[in-house]
Amino acid sequence: MIGTIRTSGRGGMVAAALARTAQAVLTALAASVIVWALLPLAPGDVATRVLLARGVQEISAAELDATRAELGLNDPLPVQFLHWIGRVVQGDLGQSFTSQAPVTQEILERLPATLILLGLALALSILLSLLLALIAVGYRDGWPDRAIRLYTQIGAALPTFVFALLALTFIVVGLQMGRVLSDASWRAALVPAFIIGLDRAAGWTQLLRAGLLEAMSSGYAEVARARGASRRRILLRHTLPNTALPFLTAIGVSIGALIGGAPLIEAIFTWPGLGAYLLEALSARNYPVIQAYVLIAALSYVTAALLVDLIALALDPRLREPRS
Amino acid sequence: MQPVLTCKGLSVAYATGARPVRDISFSVAPGECFALVGGSGAGKSTIARALIGLHGRGTRIGGELWLGGRDMAGAGPEAWRGVRGRQIGFIAQNPWSGCDPLRPVRDHVAEAWRCHALPASWTEIAARLDRLGVAGAATRMAQAPHTWSGGMLQRASIAAAGALAPPLVIADEPSSALDADRAQSVLDVLRALGSAVLLISHDIGLVLRNADRIGILHDGRLIEQGTPDTLRRNPQHAQTRRLLAALDPMPPRRTAPLPTPLLRLDGISASYDRGRVRALEATHLGIAAGEIVGLQGPSGCGKSTLLRIAMGVERPAGGRIWRAAALDRPAAVLPVFQDPVASLVPHWPIWRSVAEPLSAPHLPRLSRGARRERALSALATVGLHGIDPEARPAELSVGQCQRAAIARATLARPALIVADEPTSALDGPSSWQVGRLLREAADAGTAVLVVSHDTAFLTRLADRVIAMAPGRTLTPGKGARPHRAGEPAGGIAVGA
User: Fold this and answer.
1) C-alpha B6: how far from its chain's center?
2) Do A5 and B182 count as a contact with CB atoms less than 8 A apart?
3) How far is A227 from chain B, CA to nearest CA, in Å?
4) How many CB atoms lie within 10 A of CB A57?
5) Are B100 and A219 within 8 A, CB to CB?
6) Residue B83: its chain A contacts at CB < 8 A?
7) Is there a contact between B115 and A229 if contact means CB atoms under 8 Å apart?
């Protein structure tokens, strides 16, 4: 026998997937410690702030003690963390300092609006960047490519909110499409989601276009061409899957940014979602709400990154090798 | 019989106006192996790409290019697409980069049918791979390309190139990514395909062994054609003689090595990755002044680690090192690297890189003019008197850069030159010149330690060749043993 051939079967895939999942769980745990620490690290006494938030003007020592006992603030910090995470796992994110209502309930009321807007924006931006990058590469150096390159440069250079304001003025006010005041329906989400998507897609299109062009001049693309494959076949069957990995990673990373940027976006489109809720909480120093929002953002990011990792594992056999 | 390929006055012109290939005429008969051979920059790959229509946009093809009864010189993309795979098969130099890394090997072969909208059958592909010497093809072909060895994967590429039984297969350096013994078996498999083969190579030895007829390329022109026999016996062109000279043995040593041991490593062990991987175990190496010792072995056997220990830049984990006093002065040990262009300072004129060892602290200070003079004479001794001494490395060829690097290494009269794969980036004639220069350095009294994967080069150059297996030397060097006259150069087969 000449040469050796290593085996890389399904076992490698399962082991690698388990390792990535374990890593993600650890990351989520570390993130939750930091998120929890927001409250004990916040300036001032927690019990006092809770009482003030409840409208108690004159705080007596007895009331303070009772509240401390109620909130479990006399326990050592690790025990407090365990209690907190135990409640979080059961869906209890604490009480809002301002409204006294459970934070979970308030979030659940606003979550669908944000999910609709961000989900639609994400889907549109992925579709847009895929389409535009494929067109740009298909008509390389022709006018479609040049127009797309101009768009990606403008989109990448402008901050999201400037881009969104300009687009809003042009589309909603100028073209009389969509509404300035929104009611969180799918219909109402379409125009803002398209604007956010257009902004997001600029960077991704650039990335994907550059990756596709590089892959088109790779050895395997040349060999496929020498076998008689058409340009379209090489683009869709070989170079697109090979470029998908860095593209997916970029999408995974920016999901965190998307959620972090939601307050600004929702403020611009007067969207009644979580972002607006966070802005209120920030100005009122409503720590349980801030905590809950940061926790959701962190967990979404970890989940997105894990998903990207798993897709990459399924796509690329080289990632399934045990590391030497 | 009608030739499968005929070129008449073929030329290739880039959009920039450069014409890397000019007025090439040759033809390939059915079933024959015609080889185009030449040094780097001769235009080999440009021709290979033009013959299959893969020249870039803006590149113009002049003259006639007859393939299957049709002149393809001005053909458009669709016409080329019909010809590729059916009239011409193609085999790329590097089998791994030629395969889509995300898809199993069988898809790589099946693509030959599918991209012409023909059905591909797994059993047929497995049978073909089996015939080309891939054992267990039916199960292995479902694996990813990176898990295959180069020789096996190149067989899969041959299966793909021959899938539609094209009358001609173009193979661009098909074996240069492989070890010497695997290279020959891949070429045998290629010939067994039955198609005519246009073999593109820089390796005159390989071409002489395998081709029926050979065309010598130089500077974009086909300067000579003939059978291996006529070319070897009666080369017409100076460039052909230069290529053939690469097959000559190195000049014999003029002076016997001095019986002075210079460096002795006894029972050296080394490990990396925090002690988990043993690079060297109980390794012996000795070298005397004026001696050339070759180190040879598979990648990962610890050759480079041993070199670094010999140079004194890495400490071994165990063992004893004995160094002669001559090694303790500054610039006593000088390296020659694998990538010559990267080993020279990119923004310095070449003379300044060559003169650098003259600035070693133990030497008397020389004026800039004096250093330049010394550098120019050093460049002349390595045959570079013709080049502009103010040129930057990027303006020189890779072979010229390596010769300049050797001029730099010898200028300071070091006690030991350590060369790590000094010829792997070079074509045949340049490798031969580098070998000759190392031999001259040894004759002048410098000990030379050379690592190379090119067995033929090492056996022709070195006084002794030490074969290394992973973790230890298989044939322990016997310390600084003086060379005995009449002893054949080459490996000393001592059991482990």
Assistant:
1) 30
2) no
3) 5
4) 6
5) no
6) 228
7) yes
Residue B467, pLDDT score: 83
Domain stop point among B393, B412, B431? B412
Chain B contact set for A242 (CB, 8 A): 100-102
Output the CA torsion B112→B118→B122→B124 (10° steps). Answer: -80
pLDDT confidence of B275, banded at 50, 70, 90? Answer: low
pLDDT tens sequence across B264-274: 888 888 876 66
CATH number at residue A287: 1.10.3720.10
Q: Do residues B219 and B120 touch, judged by C-beta distance below 8 A?
A: no
**Tens-place pLDDT, residues B152-182:** 899 999 999 999 999 999 999 888 777 666 7
Tally of domains within chain A: 1
Q: pLDDT per residue over A34-52, tens digit each?
A: 888 887 777 777 788 778 7
Asked whether residue A244 is assigned to any structural domain, the reply reads yes
Range of the domain at A288: 108-316
Q: CB-based contacts of A126: which residues, under 8 Å, 6+ apart?
A: A201, A204, A251
In terms of domains, do B388 and B319 share one?
Answer: no
A243/B contact by beta carbon, under 8 A: no
Element at B334 (helix H, strand E): strand B333-336
Tell me how crowded residue B76 is: count the other CB atoms within 10 A of its CB: 9
Q: In Å, how far is A251's CA from the nearest CA of chain B?
A: 20
The count of structural domains within chain B is 3
Last residue of a domain, one of B372, B390, B412: B412
* A318: nearest CA partner in chain B: B146
What token pair was written down for B231? 């070319």
Does B338 fall in a domain?
Answer: no
* CATH code of the domain in which B432 resides: 3.40.50.300
- Asked whether residue B380 falls in the same domain as residue B423, the answer is no
Residue B188 at interface with chain A, using a CB cutoff of 8 Å = no
Of A8, A220, A228, which is closest to B100 when you measure between CB atoms? Answer: A220
ipTM of the complex model: 0.77
Kindly provide the b/e burial profile for residues A189-204, where b requires at least 16 CB atoms within 10 angstroms of the residue's own CB: bbbbbbbbbbbbbbbb
With respect to residue B341, please indicate whether it lies within any of the assigned structural domains.
Answer: no
Confidence of residue B478 (pLDDT cuts 50, 70, 90): very low
Cα of B273 to nearest chain A Cα, Å: 10
Contact (CB<8Å) B98/A219: yes
Position A243 in a domain? yes
Could you tell me the residue range of the domain that residue B267 belongs to? 253-332+414-496
Task: Give the minimum alpha-carbon distance from A317 to chain B in angstroms, rounded to a whole number.
Answer: 6
